[in-house]
Write a structure and sequence with these properties.
Largest sheet: 6 strands, parallel
CATH topology: inorganic pyrophosphatase (n-terminal core)
Shape: globular
Number of helices: 13
CATH superfamily: TON_0340
Organism: Sinorhizobium meliloti CCNWSX0020
Strand order of the largest sheet: 3-2-1-4-5-6
Protein name: D-glutamate cyclase-like C-terminal domain-containing protein
Helix content: 40-55%
Oligomer: single chain
Distance between the termini: 19 Å
Length: 352
């Protein structure tokens, strides 16, 4: 049953909607490669199953996000924080664990606002850990040379059960972080958090949409040949935007937020609790909180109700469709009044 609903959740969150001026006509092929590399099962199912299996009440889960920088979007973009907030909600209310956002300082305002709109308050870690008063936030050091040591330190200190990336940029083979069209980004390399987690045997999950986000290292060779900026950048000597950072489970989506919503929906399905996934009305509030606290839409760098070129109502519709999938798949078998009595199967007789 999880693979049946997961099949269509995967389809929904990989429906491509992109302007032709951007990298387009690529999502289906990337998804097919990631699914094949991961063994062939629906990826949202695999990610949700891994989280439900590994994350226990009271555990810490790191959620790493943040893309977009000064001068275009000084506090980041609207793709990332809402998806991180949706997963934080599933982890906090569904799995009874403690979401801890790991971000650069510049990305903190929209991440905190998005989480709180999802009804996961961001508090001091000791309150989250000892009194279950929401989630917490950790910001990376400004000194880039200190990042690797800091990453090992927070893995040792917080002992997370899982580390998740949602629209978080990762370094290429030269150690350089890029935007999706081959432009260098002057930022902290949070890929070190995933390398430290993997050394410690901790589950890692990645969600991305364009090749430069953490997780794409899982299909690195394919992306180098397939992506229009897989082997070159918009400057001399660049070797492409594809990150080398892999994760244990990797989901490429049309929009990274949508991929996170798909995983949250599958967690809801596995634990049989639809309320874990935000409602469409809550999705509006999450997006507005993100946009109004600096997580702007990337196309024209404004706080218009837009995510990756799609209007916010499209994200609300994705949530509505996911909710209807959950409602129908969690309900007791029922053919209604117009189709006659259901045929009893051997399996139903055995469990009666």
């Amino acid at each position: 049953m999880p693979d049946i609903i997961g099949e269509y959740v995967d389809r929904l969150v990989t429906v491509e909607m992109r302007n032709r001026g951007m990298n387009h006509g690529i999502v289906r092929q990337i998804y097919d490669e990631a699914r094949k590399e991961g063994g062939g099962r629906p990826i949202t199912t695999r990610a949700a199953e891994a989280l439900v299996e590994r994350v226990k009440p009271g555990d810490v889960v790191f959620i790493v996000t943040g893309a977009g920088y000064y001068p275009e979007v000084p506090n980041g973009e609207s793709d990332g924080p809402p998806g991180a907030a949706s997963l934080a909600r599933a982890i906090y209310w569904g799995l009874k664990a403690i979401p801890v956002f790991v971000v650069e300082e510049c990305h903190a305002p929209p991440v905190v606002a998005s989480s709180q709109a999802a009804h996961v308050m961001v508090r001091e870690y000791h309150l989250a850990k000892t009194r279950r008063m929401g989630g917490a936030l950790v910001t990376a050091p400004l000194d880039r040379n200190a990042t690797a040591g800091w990453a090992r330190q927070i893995i040792d200190e917080y002992q997370p059960a899982a580390v998740i990336a949602v629209e978080r940029l990762g370094p290429n083979d030269q150690g350089i972080v890029h935007g999706s069209t081959g432009v260098k980004k002057d930022c902290v390399d949070l890929g070190h958090v995933f390398l430290a987690a993997q050394e410690a045997g901790i589950l890692t999950v990645g969600v991305g949409d364009n090749g430069n986000e953490i997780g794409f290292g899982r299909i690195y060779d394919f992306m180098r040949d397939f992506h229009p900026y897989g082997r070159e950048c918009q400057y001399e000597g660049g070797t492409g935007v594809i990150t080398t950072i892999a994760t244990d489970v990797f989901l490429p989506a049309s929009i990274s937020n949508w991929g996170a919503y798909g995983i949250a929906a599958m967690i809801s399905f596995l634990i049989k609790d639809r309320e874990v996934l935000q409602t469409p009305d809550m999705e509006r509030r999450i997006l507005e909180a993100c946009l109004n606290n600096g997580g702007w839409e990337m196309r024209y760098c404004t706080n218009r109700f837009i995510v990756d070129g799609t209007v916010g109502e499209s994200s609300m519709s994705i949530i509505q469709l996911l909710h209807d999938m959950l409602r129908l798949n969690l309900a007791a078998p029922d053919r209604g009044l117009s189709h006659g009595k259901m045929k009893e199967t051997n399996k139903q007789r055995e469990t009666a």
